[in-house]
Every structure is written in C-alpha cells, then in structure tokens.
Amino acid sequence: MNRMRIMGLMALATGLLAVTAGCGGNDDDADSGAAGSGAAEGGSGGEQTGGASGSTGEAGSAGAAGEGAGGSSTAAGGGAGGGSALPGAGGAAGASLDILGEYADDYGTSHVITNETWAQSSSFGDSTFNITRFSNHDEYLIAQNDASNDYNPELWSRFDWVVDGGELWFCQSTYDAPTELDALETARADDTDPSTGGCGEFAWSRLTAADGQGEAGAGGAGAGGRT
Question: Do 125 and 213 lie in a common domain?
C-alpha cells in the first residue's frame, strides 16, 4: 500500500515536472516571438525612417527645382527687360507720349513728335532725335541724336516739357550727353516760370499746335499741366 502510494506520488511529481517544463518552453517561445515582432517593427520603423528621408530628399529636389525655376524666371525677366538696364521709366509697352503731334515754336521751327522720334525743321536745317525712353508722369524724354544731324550726331539729348497756363513749353536740357545714362541723369530744367527762364540761361520754348489740332499739349495738360 505504501509502495503504491509512493509510486503514485512519484508519477504525480513526474507529471508536474513535465507540465513545468512545457510551460517554460512556451515562455521562451513567446519571448522569442516578441523579440521577432520587435525586430520586425524595428525593421518597419527603419523603412519608415528611410521613406521619410526619401521624402525629404524629394522635397529638397523639388525645392532645388523651384529655386532653379525661380532663377530662370529672374534671368528671363532680366532678359525681357532687354536693351538698356538704365534706371527710370522708359514708356511702358503700348504707352504713348502725352505730347504727340505737330507744333511750331516762336522761332519758326516746326516740330513733329511721335512715339519714336522728335523731328525739327527750320531754315538752319533738319534734326531728328530717336526716342529711347520717356515718362509722361515726370514729363521728360531721352533720345539719341540721329547720325544725320548736323550738330552733335549720335550723342544724347534730354527734353523736358511742362504745360503752364494751357500752353506747352519744352527745354532741351542737354543735347550733347555722351551716353544715354548721362542724358537721363541730367537735372530737369527749372519750370517755375518757363516763359521767362529756367532753361539754362534762357526761357523755355513754347510749342503751338499746328493745323488746328486744338490746345497745344492738351495731353500733357491732362497729365498734370498747370493752369
């Protein structure tokens, strides 16, 4: 009886050991599985980080492309400005001078003003000035003396104008500037009282509209002429 009890206890102990061993094995397997999962998650995290870096790289490339495009646009803009890089207004595309027309001054000289040229004709000869820039707001234009002019050919002139008391007056503030920039930087003539002085040592020249064109310099008066 005691022997059988002992044998039963031994069998029970053996069973318990087996169960314990089995549970320990499962725990190890579970830990391994968790580690594997962690590694997998770590791997995924690495891929995500790599992906983010890739995205950052793409963003950087896009930014660089944008900067390049901006640079090209700037360069294109510089090119579009074209020709002279001088400061100051050069009449905007499609703009017209306010003083277009045909005139005569008090000395018998005729003047024909277009957006391209200011032509003068008198008993002393003919002169043409090729307009390169103008400002209706500031009432001036810059022109290169034509190569065919008898005086100062291919040098540069600045013409200032003002409408005072309903009359158009002009002063050729410089007629022999060596460059366009020099002409542009010439100080505007004093238009305080154009009928008596301000154009160097002389009065300004009055222009009267020819052939019934109406009030001389009407366009200029509309652009800020004095009454």
Answer: yes
Q: Is residue 31 part of a domain?
A: yes
172 or 91, which is more confident? 172
Q: Pick 223 or 175 by higher pLDDT.
A: 175
- Are 110 and 78 in the same domain? no
The pTM score is 0.59
Q: Tell me the pLDDT tens digit for each residue of 189-198.
A: 999 999 999 9
Query: Mean pLDDT throughout 34-44?
Result: 39
Task: Residue 200: count other Cβ atoms within 10 Å of its Cβ.
Answer: 13
Residues 111-127 have a mean pLDDT of 97
Residues of the domain holding 76: 1-82
> What are the tokens at 60?
């950087």
Instruction: Please report whether residue 95 resides in a domain.
Output: no
Write out the two tokens for 45.
Answer: 């995290």
CA distance 111 to 99: 11
